[in-house]
Amino acid sequence: MNTSCLSAVVLLAAVAADGLASVRPPAVAGSFYTDDVQALRLQVEKFLEQAGDVESPIRAAVAPHAGFVYSGPTAATALVGIGAADPKRIILLGPSHH
């Protein structure tokens, strides 16, 4: 299972917390997902395990981005399917909430 796309999407908060200047600090860490980097990694890994394998790769998905307690499992399933396609490029579109 190729989980790099989920890591790239979901763990931006963890990357920002590790001090990379090119990624803005997470705006809602501690509100919609934990602000603890290790706990966040474990939670994402659990979502991926629960998503399991896909029957066939998908090339596009509309995935939710609400708080992890609501959207984590569904987003993980969508992203595992995309990861199975071994994409060369990932394009994210999303709203600005500010």
Structure described in brief:
The protein is 46% helix and 0% strand.
Structure in words:
The chain has 98 residues and is mainly alpha-helical. The protein has four helices and no strands. Helix 3 crosses helix 4. The protein is globular.
How are the SSEs placed, and which strands pair?
Elements: H1 4-10, H2 12-17, H3 37-51, H4 68-84
Helix pairs in contact: 3-4
Terminal-residue CA separation:
35 Å
Rounded radius of gyration (Å)? 13 Å
- What is the general shape? globular
Mean pLDDT: 76
As a percent range, the share of strand residues is under 5%
Descriptors for this entry?
98 residues, mainly alpha
